[in-house]
Amino acid sequence: MTESLEIAKNRYIAGKTAFENGKYRESVDNLEKASALLAKNTRFAGEVDIWLVNAYEAAGRSEDAITLCQQLSRHPHYETRLQAKRLVYILKAPKLKRPKEWMTEIPDFGAMSDNKSKTIITAKTAKSTSKPKPKEPEYVDLSQVNTKDNSFIWLALIVVTGTISYLVWLSL
After folding, report:
1. Where are the beta strands (DSSP E) in 68-172?
2. pLDDT over threshold 70, residue 117
3. Per the confidence metrics, is the pTM higher than 0.90?
4. Mean pLDDT value across residues 69-88
5. 51 with 19: CB under 8 angstroms?
6. Which residues, including other chains, have CB under 8 Å from residue 32's CB and lie 6 or more apart?
7. Among positive and negative, which fits the CA dihedral 154, 160, 162, 164?
8. What does the alpha-carbon distance between residue 113 and residue 38 come to, in Å, rounded to a whole number?
């Protein structure tokens, strides 16, 4: 029993790490194996399955994510049920269409030959290592600066002094 729990914990950690590194298929594989080793009514199994829902969605398996979420909405652990209900709501929400100008297209370097991709990476690295030119100091024309005394400051100072004097006189 403890050996399978230890294996499940290791698979769970590997699945979380893979998910956080963007390796969603690997994450799904590890989390599915961890989930299979655990009793379904425990808090830890619920946590593993919540991560599995997220991995399914990230891997493009939305239907599997929704199905598992619906099962988890009847989980005996309250926090797992609550998270599952929230996730089902999010997963079933309609997908918004984003305008093309909001999107940044990332080029696929896998389709390029190795020599060409190294050249591009080297060229970009060379640009980023060059030092930026120091900016010249910006000079201000002092004839344009307002150097007159501000009468508001004197008025405020007189009012504050008068108020303090009045308060001192009242306290005597």
Report:
1. none
2. no
3. no
4. 90
5. yes
6. 52
7. negative
8. 45
- Residue 38 sits at φ, ψ, to 5 deg, of -105, 150
Distances, alpha carbon 88 to alpha carbons 4, 19, 20, 74, 172, in Å: 30, 20, 21, 12, 71
Domains of the chain with CATH codes: 2-92 (1.25.40.10)
Q: Is the pLDDT of residue 84 over 70?
A: yes
Average pLDDT over residues 39-65: 91
- C-alpha 78/C-alpha 51 separation (Å) is 16
Buried b (16+ CB within 10 A) or exposed e, 23-60: bbebbbbbbbbbbebbeeeeebbbbbbbbbbbbbbbbe
The lowest-confidence range among 2-6, 59-63, 109-113 is 109-113
Q: Is 23 left (phi over 0), alpha (psi -120 to 50) or beta?
A: beta
- Residue 119: which pLDDT band, with cuts at 50, 70 and 90? low
Which tokens sit at 162? 């008068």
- Quote the tokens at residue 129: 């290592």
Alpha-carbon distance of 16 to 45, in angstroms, equals 14
Quote the tokens at residue 13. 């950690």
Q: Give dist(CA 164, CA 172) in Å, integer.
A: 13
In the DSSP assignment, the letter for residue 102 is G
